Amino acid sequence: MDIPLLTIVIIRIYYQIEINFHSHRTAMYVCLCNAVTDTQIRHAVLGGAARMRDLSNCLGVAADCGKCACAANAIRRETLLQIEEAQSLPDAA
Questions:
Q1: Which of 3, 49, 32 lies closest to 75 in space, CA to CA?
Q2: Residue 7 is inside which H or E element, if any?
Q3: Is 49 exposed, middle or buried (0-12, 13-18, 19+ CB in 10 A)?
């Protein structure tokens, strides 16, 4: 059974980000109003939430007081950069 290349790339990106991120720290609450952690934000971005509006819709980030918006946006941007870097790695085929 052949696994499509896109599936392999997505799995590779996901695990590389997870290993890099979880190897040295634990989750941190970013949005106290909705009890959202940085790990949940990273998972949402990996799941396709590329804009702050997407994070707000799926997690409630920055939907109440808004004090978490800057931190959530920084985590979103960092995760998107990690995805881009992982996609640019040469395939191990």
A1: 49
A2: helix 5-22
A3: buried
Q: How far is CA 1 from the centre of its chain?
A: 30
**Which amino acid is present at 77?**
R
Exposure string of 69-87, with b = 16+ CB inside 10 Å and e = fewer, is: bebbbebbebbeebbeebe
How is the chain split into domains, by residue range?
27-88
Two tokens, residue 10: 């997505």
Both tokens of residue 33? 């109003």
| Residue-wise pLDDT tens digits, 2-19 | 556 666 666 666 666 665
Predicted confidence (pLDDT) per residue in 39-76, tens digit: 999 999 989 999 999 999 999 999 999 999 999 999 99
Q: What CATH class does 27-88 carry? A: mainly alpha
